[in-house]
Records
---
Amino acid sequence: MLRIGSIELDVPVMQAALSGWSDLPMRRIARRCGAPYALNEVVLDQAVLRKGRHQRRILNVAADDHPVGGQLLGSRPDELADAADAMVRAGYDAVDINFGCPVRKVLGRCRGGFWLSTPAAAIEAVRCVHDAVAGRVPVTVKMRRGMDDSPGSERSFFEILDGALSIGVAAVTVHPRTVRQRYVGPSRWDFLRRVKQHVGGAVVIGSGDLFCAADARRMMEQTGVDGVAIARGCIGNPWIFREIRAVLTGRPIPAPPTVAEQRDIIDEHYRHVIDTYGEERGSRIMRKFGIRYGEYHPLAHEVRKAFVDIRNAGDWQAVMDRWYNPAVEWPPTKRKVAPGDLIAAGAG
């Protein structure tokens, strides 16, 4: 089990906040496949505070979407605090502060990973959010291991880490790449081990290069982190959560999903998307998910291309009827491992 403040998870795994991906439909599918906790895609504090359709969607927490964390991105402690309060009042079960996003336009506006270069301001932001939430839900922080590989950047990381824990955050998620690295180069799991040794009993969640159940187990065994956050590894592969459940509870890993099982999940995901966004917009949104689901099909190259060519709901149905036809004897699917051509999905 894993405890994050008042939130108790029966297995120490969660779906990370994924910009442009981890919306309500994706979170529902992650839970369906075994994720005990999921975070909303990272949102700007100003989007939470500014009235309009986008605000209403962010603050509409579904009854079946619990426990759910809201991850916030911003540049001003007071606005982060106001947005955190609004999310808690809307029904979010935790607030996560993003100090890790490496996207250039985010850094240029003093958000995300930029905070790692200003320890005093970052600690003040944590304090403001923690005070605003006032013990109603746990506050957590997402960090990278620094802006770059310099000793000064590492000192700033630990200054922010210690400050956040002294304020009372319930957990810290650490991605052991630097902001400058983005998603290129090695993810230094040895740094996670150092962080966990440094904080002792405080809850540390590991992130980075987790693309299969064996990765999750290795990270926990090698670093001592208390849990893992699955980011890019669950896009198009929600079955990773049932596999991690099996590995961490001493059971055999389930067989890879058959084409028929894949169709069931994709169809369910599609229905959730259409219910959430409507058919026209939903079909466009679902196309990017289809491309990633296609990586699991025995004929992945052809199926991904078919999803790429989708333009409307009719095209979607044609692809499903052609490539996920239950009457066809498809070759067996292979277990998904870290693909070399994954595109960074925006996870901070």
---
Amino acid sequence: MKKSLALAALAAGLACGAANAQQVNVKIGVLSDMSSLYSDIGGPGSVVAAKLAIADFTKDHPNVKVDLVSGDHQNKPDIGSQIANQWFDVDHVDMIVDVPNSGVALAVSQIANQKNKVFVASGPGTSDLTGSKCNANTVHWTYDTWMLANGTGTALVKTGGDTWFFLTADYAFGHALERDTSAAVTKAGGKVLGSVRHPLNTNDFSSFLLQAQASKAKVIGLANAGGDTINAIKQGAEFGIGRGAQKFAGLLVFVSDVNALGLQTAQGLTLTETWYWDMNDANRAWTKRWQAERNAAGKFPTMVQAGVYAGTLHYLKAVAALKSASDGKAVVAEMKKLPTDDPLFGKGVIREDGRKIHPAYLFEVKTPAESKHPGDFYKLRATIPADEAFRPLKDGNCPLVKS
């Protein structure tokens, strides 16, 4: 009798062990700009970041099997939507990550919500993703337009840049960034003298720069990103902008932009980021891995790519806790329930509206003489605490937030 009971207990223990080791299958899609003006911000570097997150997670969770696919949305919402629908409906993708381009991201967020999948947004900037367009299937990880506006915009007004003119990319991100920065400038006591909108990925900024110069504004706010920011600053230097009374404010400047511009051109730019590769030992160690996997010694990862790594890692933690990736709303609810903790962003939380909360940093680009090694681009001007870096929950008008 005792032998039978012992065998039964052993069988029960083995069954429990098998249940705990049950394989969980997950499929992740990195949807990004692989070939155009945002490809250095996200693109192939974001695919590498996701690979590193998967490798780090599955090393300690061998029962979680992760497949990774990638696609190029070409900065077109219709193409991004087609890929998202194909991935969710046919290819059984559970989560889409990255998506630098707010127009594409708003479409993907809606599709993820309709199909009960997960969208972890690291690339897009529009604060509407956690505002009026928020939903229970989207997490906004790295930065947003409210954060950028209240970092760079407020800081520049306080240091004398009290009149502004905007060069704005004519799509959702640019509009949101101009809107949020205008509000921040006005709140800080500054004045907006005007704005002009330019097509996405334009090569000729001359007419827009002439309008900005004619405004006599002290600050020309670049409500754009990537190749557009690089081209505007390069062409602006030919017009003498930056050497006289008018200065550029790069409202969204990435380390890849500074690398492309060079310190001689970019020096003195003030910018806000949430992650910088050379800020501490953990970031530097991860960057070495990223560069080796990317086979790109001369490139440095952006905060977007760091956000892809951290967001993917946290997503997989939630899937492992639930032992399933099938219910997107449940996974996002678990992501909000679990405190965030990763090597790049440290400890944090995901709010009810889907906003990931962490500190932001106000940087100034170094002069060539100040830079001591390749990629030594920034000096820290201020740390914006996590509870101040992003829009207050009550002000976002997110339908998920109880009034």
---
Amino acid sequence: MLKIYKPTTPSRRKTSVVRAEEINKGRPYRKLIIIKKRKAGRSKGCIVVRHQGGQEKRFYRKIDFRQDKFDISGQVKSIEYDPNRSCWIALINYLDGEKRYIIAPRGIKAGDNFLNSKNKIEAKVGNRMPLKYINLGMAVHNVELNPGQGGKIVRSAGSSAVLMGFTEDGKFAQIKLPSSEIRLIPSSCLASLGQVSNPERRFIRWGRAGRMRHRGIRPTVRGKAMNPVSHPHGGGEGVSPIGLKHPKTLWGKPARGVKTRKRKKWTNKLIIKRRMKKLKKK
């Protein structure tokens, strides 16, 4: 549920957050957290990675993207907040006593059971099985690109891919990704059923600059607003153009509209249709 604050201050007027009643307020499971080292944008006092720095101190939760405990029933102990990702995570208790964190699908609650298997099982939200056993038109997430590799795509809040079909030989499944790209994935790859949790996150209004600094995002300055020594677009008096035939990055490479994907990249043959670029509103 999206909570909108009362306009008690100028920054509060535009601020909103996501509130979920099912989120556990307690501490994370201690054996599944590690200290996350800060990777600020400075090295020996000099900025080497722009637009990053600060952020809140936080623990990293070890997420099980592989979900390779097959044919062992697991029960959701709690749904928790993870500061390192946009979706919620679920703490799973398996029958053998092991506990793991997974990406929580939308609609799953504490006490629900789910199963991972390499065979055909019930098509229930949260269950995980190979793509070849999933019905056409179903939403999936945490999809593998290579068998046994672990989920690599469709893992952010509210995202889901759609299984559209299979090739004639059945070796590949045709998947429509959230970006509208349609590509082939080996049908033996695993995928979890359902949509990723926290779909309301896309409607959050951060409200004030301080919330972005807590996330580790520092200000982004236009190149044309800098001095010539700082950026190729810099210099000039007043509101002046960049003075170049085409835009450049800070390091002098062409920017905006330049194709960066290698033509001979091996995954080209698996992509059936490219994503549709979003048109900018005038």
